[in-house]
Design brief:
single chain, globular
Length: about 300
């Protein structure tokens, strides 16, 4: 180029200015890693129920929660109308009968917690500060487990207070029901933690929400169907161990082992396996699935 080339001739009319916008460094308290984990846990729990989001985001989680509560409310109402009438639901079988509700909630909300972060490429923002990759995974598992606990404990509390309120002597009824608090609070924990880890272990592998939702539903459908088919089509040890293919059988067997009272149609009693076997499987699901989530995020490109 020559000096006369317009591309390199200085523009005498160009002007510039520097503005002092008053930017200052942060001088406040730095809360660190623990606060970051708690903040992520809280935000994820709120996201699991669509809190702080549009009405559309609340429709599925709150609709599923309502579906979980309605049978318990109906059972309590029937008990009030027909005192002493036999209810199809009790503390022992309620969560087992609601397993489709758990599966739908997991399929809808597990991708909500993790797939969108991958799709929107915001993981680098999380990992650029005090938050470790394992912290992110554990906070998400904890938040989903807490959401599942709320989903499970809500109808159990309806059964609990319904049994008290329909009694003529509230104080005596409350005293009678206090012994069931271990079942009311313990069974939801047994269900929530392994299911949360399993759901996120599936959802964390894809940024596409539809794929994650379909995969979670497929896992529960296939394990339930295969377990039932093997029980009917085989004999001996294969038939005894086949129910363990269904993770819900493992969870109900763990509940039976720790809290007592088996469910007739859950497959636990029919398998005739020692109850600690179901507890070991439930623990294995939680630990292996949780480790898979941590492993996934430690190797994921942010």
């Amino acid at each position: 180029m020559t000096p006369r080339d317009p591309a390199v001739v200085p523009r005498e009319s160009a002007t510039g200015a520097i503005y002092d916008l008053g930017y200052r460094g942060y001088t406040g308290e730095r809360l660190g890693r623990r606060a970051a984990v708690l903040a992520l846990f809280s935000a994820s729990l709120r996201a699991a129920f669509g809190l702080g989001r549009s009405g559309k985001a609340k429709l599925v989680p709150w609709g599923i929660t309502l579906i979980a509560i309605v049978p318990a409310a109906v059972a309590a109402a029937v008990s009030a109308i027909v005192p002493g009438g036999a209810s199809p639901f009790n503390y022992n079988n309620y969560l087992w009968d609601m397993q489709i509700v758990f599966a739908l909630f997991l399929a809808a909300q597990a991708p909500e917690l993790v797939s969108s972060d991958q799709r929107n490429h915001v993981l680098s923002l999380y990992f650029s500060h005090a938050l470790l990759r394992s912290d992110y995974a554990l906070a998400k598992i904890g938040a989903l487990a807490a959401a599942l606990f709320v989903l499970a404990v809500a109808p159990m509390l309806v059964l609990f207070f319904g049994s008290v309120l329909v009694s003529a002597d509230l104080v005596a009824a409350l005293g009678d029901q206090v012994g069931n608090l271990a079942q009311v609070l313990g069974a939801p924990i047994i269900y929530a933690i392994p299911l949360a880890a399993l759901g996120l272990a599936i959802a964390a592998w894809t940024p596409r929400r539809a794929y994650a939702t379909g995969a979670i539903i497929a896992v529960f459908i296939v394990t339930t169907a295969v377990g039932a088919i093997l029980v009917e089509a085989t004999t001996g040890n294969v038939s005894r161990w086949a129910p363990l293919i269904n993770p819900f059988v493992a969870l109900d067997g763990t509940r039976d082992w720790l809290l007592g009272a088996s469910v007739a149609d859950s497959g636990v009693a029919a398998s005739r396996l020692p109850l600690p076997v179901f507890g070991l499987e439930a623990a294995a699901i939680a630990l292996i699935a949780g480790a898979a989530v941590i492993w996934r995020y430690r190797r994921m490109a942010a």
